[in-house]
Amino acid sequence: MSHTENTPSELRVTTGDLDRYFTFLRHVLVNTSATRPDGESLDYAAAVSESMQLARATHDAGRKIIFIGNGGSAAIASHMATDYSKNGGLRAMSMNDGATLTCLSNDLGYENVFAKQIDMHATEGDLVVAISSSGRSESITKAVRVARERGGAVLTLSGFAPSNPLRALGDLNFYVASDQYGYVEIAHLAICHAVLDFSCGLIPPPLS
């Protein structure tokens, strides 16, 4: 029996479904909000430009960019740490080693898995990029507060509720107005890539 014959007929989408899905994805991307810690709104392009400058200044000062996130956001953190280093020539890392995470969560509680690593390894002038779809993960918000105490800069990416706590903790805060993980995670990845790609001199091609 072929794979097609085993596929339930209800597992299908229409062209219209896909069009609406990707149209809404574009909507959440282009309507992402950027703010400072006090809630002051920033022009989106200005916030991306400032993120580029901050990342480059961090590297040029001999410091590093640290990406943190849970679950899908952890995958984004690892992906971006690799790309920022390899493609962007920027000193970057993520804190997602499996043995370290299980050790620290077992001994100190999961809420401390990133805070403890930042306390041990971050130095003044480092840039922490904190990624959380909900903006409510205690492991992320606690780590950001420790980074602040260590004299680091913070850039946050969050979604779901506009009042999520992470959104108020960064020097720059990007907020994606959706309560769907897929949309928020894709948007976070795209924003991080935009910062990197423009830093590398990308000129978006015209639409044909």
TrEMBL record:
Residues 54-205 form the SIS domain. Transmembrane segments: none annotated. Keywords: Isomerase. InterPro entries: GmhA/DiaA (IPR035461), SIS_dom (IPR001347), SIS_dom_sf (IPR046348), SIS_GmhA/DiaA_subfam (IPR050099). Gene3D superfamilies: Glucose-6-phosphate isomerase like protein, domain 1. Pfam families: SIS_2. GO terms for biological process: carbohydrate derivative metabolic process. It comes from the Bacteria. GO terms for molecular function: carbohydrate derivative binding; isomerase activity. This is Phosphoheptose isomerase. The lineage of its organism: Bacteria, Pseudomonadati, Pseudomonadota, Alphaproteobacteria, Hyphomicrobiales.
